[in-house]
Structure formats: C-alpha cells, structure tokens
Amino acid sequence: MPESSIVFKANDEISGSMKSMYGNSQALSKQFEELQRKVGQLSQKNDAFNKSFASVSTQAMAAKKSLKEAEAAFKKTGDEESKLNFENAKKQYKDLTDAAKSYEEASRDTRKSIRETQEEIRKLGSNSGGSGAAGAGGSGDMMSGLGSGLLKAGLIRDLGNSVAGFAGTLIESAVGQPLATIANSTLSGAASGAAAGALLGPAGIAAGAAIGGLSGLVSAGNQIYEKKDDAFKSYVQENTESQLTQRDADIQAGSAVAAQREQDAIAFNTMLGNGVGDDYLKDLRIMAAKTPMEYSDLTAMSRSLATGFKDDPSRMLSLMTSVGNAGSAVGADANGMNTMATALARMQSSGKTSLEYVNLIQERGVDAIGMLADGLDKTKAQIYDMISKGQINGVNAVSIIQKAMDTMYDGAMEKQSQTFSGLSSTLEDTKTEMQAAYGAGYNAERSKGIAAETDYLSGISGQRQQEANAAIGAWQASLENAKEKAIRDAVDAAMGSNDYRAAQATGDAAKMGEIIARAKVQGQNEYNAGPGAQLALESERSLAEAIRNDASTNQNYWDAGYEKGNWYTKGLAAAIGNFGFNGKTMNAGNYNPVTDTWEDYEGSNAFGLRRVPETGLYLLHQDETVKTAAESREAGGSDAVKIEITGPVTVRQESDIKDVATELYRQIAAAKLRAD
After folding, report:
1. What value does the mean pLDDT take over residues 557-576?
2. 354 and 309 both lie in a single domain
C-alpha cells in the first residue's frame, strides 16, 4: 500500500529559488506572473491529490480490517455467503489501494511539473539578467551586474541544493531519520544562504552559508518536532476513538446476545418448565466457559436432546458432557455432536434402536455398534441382527452408549480446552459474556424507551403525525406530477414544431435528439418557475433560517464537532504542561487553598511535591532540598498577585467570564507551583 510520503508542500520546495528569482525579476517580464500562476495552480492540484490520498488511505485501512474479518468468517464457515462477503471485501480493498496509488502517481507527476516550471523561471531570470538592454550610462552596467549576480546565485543555489539532496539521500540510507532531516535541512539552508550572499562576493557566500545553515538547523528541529507531535496526536486520537468504537461494537454485539438469551429463556422455560429453563441456561453458560463448546452450540444440542429427555434436565447436561467428550476425542465438530445427540434423543423417545439412529453416531467416528456389543456381550454381527429384528430397547441402548462414552472418552473436552483452538474458543465465550453484560444493561434500559416510543406513536400524537405524513406525501407527489407534466407538455410541443418535423422528414436523428433534450430542459425550467417549485424552495429556505436562528441561541447546539476536532489538535506540549499528573489538568476544582495542596493527583512527582502531606519517607531527586515546617512558613511571604490586562477583552456569553477566571486561576497556580 502506498506510504504517506506522498504528502508534499509545494511552497516549501519552490520558495527558495522561485520566490527569490521572481522577486528580483518581476519588472523584467510578465512571464514571471504567468509562471507564478501556473505553479500556484499546480500546487492546488497537488494539495487536492494529497487530501484524496489521505481520505482513500483511511478508507483502505478500514477495508483491510473488514477484509481480515471476512476472511476469518469464510475460513470458519466456508459457506457461499461468507465466500461472497470475502470476495467483495477483497475487491473493495484492492479498489481503494489502486485509487491511493493513482493519487500518489498524480501527485508525483504534479511535483515534476512544478519542478519543470521552476526551471523555466530560473532560466528566464538568468536570460533576462544577462541580456537586458543597457540604459543610459551606469544603468546598463547595473542591470548587467544584477543579471550576472542573479545567474551566479542561481547556479550556487542549484548546485548546493543538488549536493544537499544527494547527501541527504545517502545519509538517510546510512543512518535513517531524524539525523537525515537535520543534515539535509542544514545543507539546504547553507546552500540557500550561500546563494543569497553570492551578490556580495566570497565573504557574502561564507556569511550566507553560515546563517543559512543555522536557519536550516532550526528548521530541521521544527520538522522533527512536527513529526513527533503529529505521531503523538495520531496515537492519542486513534487510541481514544478505538476504545469508543470497540465499546460501541461490544454494546451492539452484546445487545444481540442479550436479546437472543431473552428468547432462549422463554423457549427453555416453556420446554423444561418455568424457572427450570433459567437454571438450565445458567448451567449451559458455565459449561460453555469451561469447555471448547460454545453457548450457541450447547443450546442447539439441548433442543435436540429435549425431544427425549426434557423431563430430566440433569440427564441432558450429563449427555452433553458425554457427547462433547466423545466428539472432542474423535474430532467431530459442533454439527456432528448435535447429530449424535439427536440420534440418542430419538432412541430414547421412540424406545427403539434402529440402524438409522445408530449410524448417525457411527458415521461421526464413535463406534456405537462396538459399544452395544460390549455392553450386551454380543458380537458386532449379532448386534446388527438384533437391531434389524428390533430386539434392542432404545432406552437401554442410550444408557449403554453413554456409559461407554464416559469410560472411553472421559476428560477429552478438558484436554481439548487446553489446545490453542480450545483456549481461543474459551476466550471467545468469555468475551461474549462481557458483551452480554453490556447488552443486558443496554436492552433493559432501552426497552423502556422503545415501549414509550411505541405508546407515543400508537396514541393521539401518532395519529396526528400519520395525517400530517399523508398530506406531506401527497404534496410531494403533486410536485413530481407537475414536473413530469411540464416536461411532457414541452416535449409534445417540440415534437409538433416545424423544426422537429423537418428533421424527422430528413432522418436527422441528431437534430431530433437535440430538440427533445432542449424541450426537456425547458419543461424543467417551466416547472422551476412555477408556484409548486417556488413554494418548496421557500419552505426549504424558511427551514434553514429557523435552524440557523435557533442554533445561534446556544453554542452547545452546534459546536460539538468543532470542539471535538480541537481536542485532537493538542499534542506533546499539552501533555508536558500537565506536569506528569496522569493527564489531569490543574483547575480551580483541584486546588485546596486551605491546605495549599493540589488534590486528587496521583502518579508522578517528577516536578516535586508542593508540600509534604504527612510524616513518612519520601523519594527525593538529585539537587532537591527539604525545608522544615518553620522555614516554609517563614519563607511563605505574601500571596498577593497583581494582574493587569491590556487591550480589549470580548465576552460572547456569560460562561466566558467563568472560563477566563478559571484559566487565570490555573495559570497563577501553575506558576506558583513551578516557582515553589
């Protein structure tokens, strides 16, 4: 996938050569203005490519996550639906990455055009300086000298930039960032400074190189800090939004789980008895948490067993353990275990042992025939014969098979649960329980709102809204009818015109199409000028005005998105300003003027303690000193603070006064803390 190195600031790249050349040569030719305009347009195009690249890259990251989820679902189920979802996710990801590459290539081409235009400007400046017509006396010499100086400066600058660029590439290849940025920026600054001083001779070149190098070093520091700060901001925003997104996803998933469990409770209470079903489902959740089997698989198996054992829920649980151990030992999946449970339930409920039922177990890898043979002290051939004659009671057969399963496969589920797959299954069950807790709380509270909304829509208010909706729908349809009629009338009129008939007579299909298309537009225009469309337009305008006027009455109505965006513009400097107090910001609510302490702060004391809160041992940093209580009181002095505000202070709303006071208090307290 393309890297974010596509981001390019055109002004940074061209400012040195183009602006300097343009500024010295503006009076020589209007071509500079045209080239300047061209570069500006190219820069805007490049900015647009950068924004599109960033947007598509973000979408590609989300698509990649969806692709992984779709791939995992396909590997798990293997059905056609999951396969189709996987293919669609793969295509979407490929389309997005291809788009990102195209934006990167477009930006690369645009940057090339900018460099070519820059070269045109350089050549124009050199040619103008060297060939300028001499004026009266010293004027010609001045222009000639200026041209020569500009040419020399341009050559020095271009040579220096080329050397700096090559050196920067080598340094980055050798030591990487950020040293490469420091070296490249310093060399580039020195080259630009030397070029600027070229007009003053060797001494000017040396001085310019020194000053430019220093400027480049400062610029490098700024670039490195910007990169660190951007990385820090991204880390904060991504982790914050990741936590909130995960929480919302867990609530949504948990709501579905809780809703399903609510339905399960109704079904099992009906099937096993009121209250008995609730207890049974609790046992299933415990079993799911301790075994590789998932809760949904256990409920499905329970429904199968209930046809033969619903009067004995404890037997159902023991049979699921027996079948689970047997299935884990022979490698049967959840569907296979459910099939074996179904066979046992049918034998129990029918009282018969048929080959059809036994084969359902036999085909899953569990030797039910052998178990019956051992249990009845017969050969396998005799068992087949007895089954065909209906001589084996189904209830007895179930008991024999279950006992044999317990003997042969005891503990198989526990062993399976310690494998990677088993541990993963157990972890998923545990996570499901966490999500279910979200969902239980959400559904319980949300159900109240759903019921209230249902009552509202079912009552008088709902009936009034239905009447209003019917009228609004009819009005909307009348607008569409009027528009279609206006277009139809215009087309009919056009098709009856002499121009259309003439085109039709000569078979001029292009002219006929033009006339019809023009008529449709005319019909649309007639509709737009009509009373219906004008009324709709006025209604939309009034709605926008009402929303604007209402929103302006309270800033909290509309600026949530703006404020949220500003949160993530704070970077390392804001974090450092919190003095290491675990991200808590000092404000009036944290400071206790009676005890002269900052309350509710835990964690780092890297900047020292304001005061020792109690007798005990404390870790001190190098060069710190400790005063006695008497010395502290004696050195306390006056706490009076004089504040002088110059210039206008604008108060937009009443809350601004409190905000200003709080910020002043915070700044004074922070300064006092640092001074102490």
Report:
1. 70
2. yes
